[in-house]
Amino acid sequence: MTTISIEADPAPIEIDLAKTAFVIIDMQRDFLEPDGFGESLGNDVSLLRTAIAPCATMLNWCRGNNALVIHTREGHRPDMTDAPLAKVQRGSPSMRIGDTGPMGRILIRGEAGHGIVDELAPVDGEPVLDKPGKGAFYQTDLELILRNRGIDALLVAGVTTEVCVHTTVREANDRGFRCIVLGDCCGSYFPDFHTTGLKMIAAQGGIFGWVSDSTRFLSAAAGGPAVA
Ligand code: C5J
């Protein structure tokens, strides 16, 4: 057992590294790459891409220290039988789920855009969960995997802060997992949503979890002083 104390908001949090998983939410080409779905909708993907380097640093640490890493991808079966009509028909975007975009059919499993960016590509032994919804627990075996491994704390990263990261953290919190969201490893097309989304997690004494960053985690893991 290696227990460390991570500087975080609203307060430091102690975790046992053997019972901690790094969960990376939806770092998919369609959300993050120039020419992807996100950019085709007019979004500035550079706001999300800032999360790639800190996520890669965290991945390296986890791989070097035998920590469980779990990747998720948002998307649907090619026949879209698992895509609720209410999701497919929502809003009036120029392209919808299932339409053909710059990197294949939007949010469809097996298409290039659905894949995780090369910098964070999963390696053997790292579960990759395909989720049809925003939360990583909905209609996936994430909870089973975490319980089987005796995990009680999650280091959470990914995109977007206020949508799939938030939904997953809320789901995890309700299931009794302690979530430490690494702010620099997350991103949003809307900077104020990112900032406010993180504040919402840590508000009211940490109503859904804790907020920290990769620097403070790595410093705690190295046994050094926390760097704000
Ligand atoms: C994610 C979304 N991954 N914003 N999806 O946050 O629709």
TrEMBL record:
Residues 20-207 form the Isochorismatase-like domain. Keywords: Hydrolase. One of its GO terms (molecular function) is hydrolase activity. SUPFAM superfamilies: Isochorismatase-like hydrolases (SSF52499). Pfam families: Isochorismatase. This is Cysteine hydrolase. It comes from Hwanghaeella grinnelliae.
